[in-house]
C-alpha cells in the first residue's frame, strides 16, 4: 500500500484526511483505487482522457512521475504519493 498525501483543497473528498493509504502496483492503479475509495477524487486528478490533469503534479516519493514512467510507474509498499495542484496567480 502507498500513502497518498492529499492537498488541503481536496480533503473534503477524503473526510478531511491529509493522508490516505491505498493499494496498487502502479501510480495509475493507486490513483484509480483512490477514486474508488473516495469518489470525486478522480475528476480532480484525471482529465476526460484518463491522463493526469495539466495543473496537477504527482510525485512518487520525491520524483515527479512525468520524469519516471508517468501512470505506469511502479509503486512499492511504503511509497508516498503526493498530489500538488498548481496555484495560478499574478
Order of helices and strands: EEHHEEE
The side-by-side strand order for the widest beta sheet comes to 2-1-5-3-4
Q: Helical percent range?
A: 10-25%
CATH class descriptor name: Alpha Beta
- The CATH architecture would be Roll
Straight-line distance between termini: 39 Å
Question: How many structural domains in the coordinates?
Answer: 1
- Poorly predicted regions are none
CATH superfamily: Beta-grasp domain
Largest sheet: 5 strands, mixed
Strand count: 5
How large, in whole angstroms, is the Cα Rg?
12 Å
Shape: globular
The portion of residues forming beta strands comes to 15-25%
Helical stretch tally: 2
- The CATH topology turns out to be Ubiquitin-like (UB roll)
Question: Could you characterize the architecture of this molecule?
Answer:
By secondary structure, the protein is an alpha+beta fold. It has a single domain (2-85), classed as Ubiquitin-like (UB roll) (Roll). The protein has two helices and five strands. Strands 2-1-5-3-4 form a five-stranded mixed beta sheet, with helices on one face. The N and C termini lie far apart (39 Å). The model has no long low-confidence stretch (mean pLDDT 95).
Amino acid at each position: 500500500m502507498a500513502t497518498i498525501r492529499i492537498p488541503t483543497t481536496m480533503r473534503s473528498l477524503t473526510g478531511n484526511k491529509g493522508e490516505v493509504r491505498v493499494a496498487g502496483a502502479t501510480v495509475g492503479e493507486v490513483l484509480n483505487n483512490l477514486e474508488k475509495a473516495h469518489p470525486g477524487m478522480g475528476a480532480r486528478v484525471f482529465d476526460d482522457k484518463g491522463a493526469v490533469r495539466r495543473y496537477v503534479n504527482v510525485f512518487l516519493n520525491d520524483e515527479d512521475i512525468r520524469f519516471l514512467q508517468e501512470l505506469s510507474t511502479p509503486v512499492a509498499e511504503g511509497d508516498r504519493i503526493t498530489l500538488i495542484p498548481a496555484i495560478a496567480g499574478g
